[in-house]
Amino acid sequence: MDNRAKFSENLSNLTYGFVGLGLMGGSMAKAIRKFILCDRKNVASHNAEGKIFACTRKESALQDAKSQGIIDDYCVLNSDNEESIKKMLGECDMVFICLPPKNTIEFLLKNQANFKPGSIVTEIAGVKTGIFKAFPNGIDGINFIPGHPMAGNEREGFAYSDENIFQNRNYIFLPYENTDKEALESFKEAMKLIGFTNLIVTDWKTHDHKIAFTSQLCHVIASALVDCAEDTQVTQFGGGSFEDLTRIALINAPLWTELFCSNKAELIAHIENFEKSLDKLKNQIKTENKEELCATLSEVRERRAIMAQYMKKR
Amino acid sequence: MDNRAKFSENLSNLTYGFVGLGLMGGSMAKAIRKFILCDRKNVASHNAEGKIFACTRKESALQDAKSQGIIDDYCVLNSDNEESIKKMLGECDMVFICLPPKNTIEFLLKNQANFKPGSIVTEIAGVKTGIFKAFPNGIDGINFIPGHPMAGNEREGFAYSDENIFQNRNYIFLPYENTDKEALESFKEAMKLIGFTNLIVTDWKTHDHKIAFTSQLCHVIASALVDCAEDTQVTQFGGGSFEDLTRIALINAPLWTELFCSNKAELIAHIENFEKSLDKLKNQIKTENKEELCATLSEVRERRAIMAQYMKKR
User: Fold this and answer.
1) Residue A190 and residue A187: Cα distance in Å, rounded?
2) Do A238 and B170 touch (CB under 8 A)?
3) Residues B246, A213: C-beta atoms closer than 8 Å
4) Which residues lie below 8 Å from residue A170, measured CB to CB, with a gap of 6+?
5) 3-state SS of chain B?
6) In chain A, what is the straight-line distance between the N-terminal and C-terminal CA atoms, in Å?
7) End-to-end CA distance of chain B
8) What ipTM was reported for this prediction?
9) Which candidate, A175, A23, A15, A31, places its Cα nearest to that of A99?
10) CA distance linking residue A107 with residue A84, whole number of Å
11) Nearest CA in chain B to A155
12) Distance, in angstroms, between B304 CA and closest chain A CA?
């Protein structure tokens, strides 16, 4: 029997692997169970051969996922279980590494020889510089395709995972030059099936530059806005604006510390551009230059309306 | 017959007046029709004596409001109709002036003697300095109670008005020292009936200081963020954060130019506080001071979680 992963087969017959089963890993596993494999609750219609295996640090998350019919088998992610993890990786056709960025690189360096030949292996780190510095030419023998699902929420852990958070969202794929086209197409097809509608293929430098703006800069601004509030009851005077601007300030501090610092150069440049725009508006207000201020705001409205065309409806 | 407005009566028997029937005036008129007066569509249950009169510049809005059963009678707001407007104001127990701030003051100065004796008259300007400078002691013979419904959306005009935008929102009341308690209670009761759940009584200086933070600063930040974007297609790389932070950048430029400039001192002070917090975060990132950065973000998360307790669920 040929042990190489085959993507010409139906996606519902593949074996999926998750390393990390928190909010993102959990949500993706649930979505694959629901939208690609059949739902175990509906036994009558269950004829797909596909499976989901998972490993993560927290055994309780794995137990919950198993009892909910999301995963078929698991092992706890720790140094005692290296052999079980190796065995699990060797059986998976498509592996999602959903760990914090540094742990992702460590895991990949340690396990790069343990994946099933020809399998698709992806990771979801929010900054790609470190990944591409560690693996400038991919990983031998497999289809290593870094990616970035542009979804999530301010919660943490498998308990909050939700199979529906990917609907109408953007997925960014970062294949290598020599990435197998068929493997990339299968990966994209799977991500479409779980809800992503806007699939973008780009390189890591573009990714880190754009993401520093749409994601990291926004998190810095939201955090600064909460930080500068005089008191924590000011929201009694709120009408929704402050709430919207600071939702993402319910931030996972260690994760975002790592993301901000690992994309420092891009992020600082965006912060400084933002400061220039803020300064322009501040001076127009300070000098009561109503004509220029109104022109700036009109242009802002127009730009935001154009941008809305590139946002998916949710 | 005593012609003075009486608030001991049921709110469903009062005559309501609207000056300005755009997004806010229209939404409030619709909400009063639905939640205080009975719905005209349901003729069988229509036994309240209450009425709604309106004047606004756009005749089409008035015609639409009348044909939809929202208002009972109207006149167009222009200089040819001064006598009709005077007659209308003389019949209303509770008048909502829903014009831009400057027009509000002009209208009040011109019509202050035309209101029904003892009636409640309110306005909804986003900055109160100008109102309280023009009327430092209120308006003789009536209960003039400035207010601020903390609701709305980025759209404009009666066509987009919606009776449900006030559910669970904050309403700020700015009575004068000598405001009649019974009149204030009736006004609050009416606002509760149309959906507001958090009713705050404060003075205009506190209002302008807090609103400069929760509303105006947020609009400046959202506008600066759109202004500094390199291109209008960057949102293809978005995951929701940029969208959330810039929804309010679909800004009504002339209105916000006026609001920003009329609350300049408070707003500039808040912008500068925000810049300090942003600078602190920028330097922690620049120097990769991970310990301090993580501590700042942890504190931000904690503060935002406390703030959430003072936000109403929507």
Assistant:
1) 5
2) yes
3) no
4) A150, A196, A198, A199, A200, A312, B236, B237, B238, B239
5) CCCCCCCCCCHHHCEEEEECCCHHHHHHHHHHHHHCCCCCCCHHHCCCCCEEEEEECCHHHHHHHHHCCCCCEEEECCHHHHHHHHHHHHHCCEEEECCCHHHHHHHHHHHCCCCCCCCEEEECCCCCHHHHHHCCCCCCCCEECCEEEECCCCCCCHHHCCCCCCCCCEEEECCCCCCCHHHHHHHHHHHHHCCCCEEEECCHHHHHHHHHHHHHHHHHHHHHHHHCCCCCCHHHHCCCHHHHHHHHHCCCHHHHHHHHHHCHHHHHHHHHHHHHHHHHHHHHHHCCCHHHHHHHHHHHHHHHHHHHCCCCCC
6) 45
7) 45
8) 0.89
9) A23
10) 14
11) B301
12) 6
CB < 8 Å to B232, chain A: 303, 306-307, 310
The alpha carbon of residue A236 and the mean position of all alpha carbons in its chain are separated, in whole angstroms, by 34
Residues in chain B: 314
* Tens digits of residue pLDDT in A13-63: 999 999 999 999 999 999 999 999 975 544 444 556 899 999 999 999 999
φ/ψ of residue A39, rounded to 5: -70, 125
Q: Are B64 and B159 in contact (CB under 8 A)?
A: yes
Sort A123 into a burial class: Cβ within 10 Å, 0-12 / 13-18 / 19+.
Answer: buried
Both tokens of A56, joined, read 């993560």
* Chain-chain contact of A249 with B301 (C-beta, under 8 angstroms): yes
Output the CA torsion sign for B172, B178, B182, B187: negative
> Which token pair is A169?
């969202």
Cross-chain residue pair B307–A235, CB shorter than 8 Å: yes
Cβ distance A300 to B223 under 8 Å? yes
Residues in a beta bridge with B171: B149, B199
Residues from chain B that touch A126, judged by Cβ atoms under 8 A, are: none
User: pLDDT grade, residue B311 (50/70/90)?
Assistant: confident
Is the torsion defined by CA of B255, B256, B259, B260 positive or negative? Answer: negative
**pLDDT at res. A128:** 97
Question: CA-CA distance, A85 to A78, in Å (whole number)?
Answer: 9
Burial of A109 by CB count in 10 Å (0-12 exposed, 13-18 middle, 19+ buried)?
exposed
A230: region left, alpha or beta (phi > 0 left; psi from -120 to 50 alpha):
alpha
Q: Which residue of A has its CA nearest to B153?
A: A240
Nearest to B126 by CA among B213, B227, B17: B213
pTM of the model: 0.89
CA distances from B27 to B23, B50, B58 (A): 6, 17, 16
Residue with tokens 């069988």: B44
Asked if A303 lies within 8 A of B226 by C-beta distance, the reply is: yes
